[in-house]
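> Could you send the PQQ-binding-like beta-propeller repeat protein prediction when you get a chance?

Sure thing. Input:
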Amino acid sequence: MIVQHDVFRILRGGSFILTLLFVAPWLGFSAALADGTLFFTDIFNPSFSDGFIRRVETDGTGLQTVLSGGGGLRGIAVYPDSEYVYYTDVDLDQIRRCNFDGGNVRTLVYGPVFPMEIAIDPAADLLVWGDQGAGVIGVAHLDGTGAHTLLTTSFAAGLALDTVNGKIYWSTALTGSTGEILRADYDGSNSQTVVSESDRPARLALDISGGKVYWTDYVVDVVRRANLDGTEVETIFDAGGNHNPDGICLDLAAGKVYWGQEGVQVNREMIKCMNFDGTAVEDVIDGFGIVASIDLKAAPFSSVGSGPAAMRLLTVSPNPFAGSAALRLDLPQDASIRLSIYSVDGRRITTLHSGILARGRHQLIWDGTDQGGVMAPPGVYFCRMDAGAAVEKIPMVLIQ
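Output:
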């Protein structure tokens, strides 16, 4: 599972259009809820030869079958800007992609022996897969060209990309008594063991700004996390015997973990969610085979109230940023605007503008400091724009 495109894509420089997250004015920042669509592979349901790519809203509504692909479906990664779903098929020995509606299926890479998981970094034009059968990490361009073996290594099921620092994380142990999480640079160099423990990490997800790696372990039935360097390993959820947590992804902006595990019905799995620290555990939806891999696509922009029609924050650039970031606004008419920066716990850091802005496009700069001119610490922040009853917020990542 990947993190690269959870609520927002973390890019190494460059500008892009961020998916905007709606928060009703009466909720406030600290009460922001996860919002978007989960794409996942549902395999061995109803029989061993069956497999599907499905999608469901994060509140458990709107379940749809995107693609019927047979029992070989395994890894999945969503690229919202292109409206592509990338996936692996261990029966066909292929890396493939399709549209969000399941159309336009295309094989990108032929020949992997057992491609178990997949991850993408659009900014680097990078497609990465873990081949459990061949014991390699393979890479290619997003269109499948230039495919080659990057690393020869044991591979289990977990694969995630640190798109800020250009690193690949993967899990190694399929059998045996010891499991590991390793990482290496995008070019395959500097390979090192991050986590080594008596159990077996399965799927992985990264919170780069929070400095954490999350993983499921279907041997001891837990969800765990540690610092990116492997220190401070902690169990944040104990699923109970034989509940087999598997696919995992993160909603970075809302601070939520989503994962699949066996549900109330034997041999039928469910999707659950919780806060990053393991609190507020909830059931999202159940009734699947095995939720092998899962990824999150942020919800499209929406607004409420009587604010200017189609007002929006167009971009934040760069993101992540060090030093300063430019926020661009698009107003269809003159409006009274308040543009403020908030921390993830709802504290207002600074206000960039409060007053009338003329129709058209505007650019405001946040230099990373608070209202008193003190530099804010690295982390995830939100720019909030209020115009009458309409509210928008957009995530930003300050890296130093």
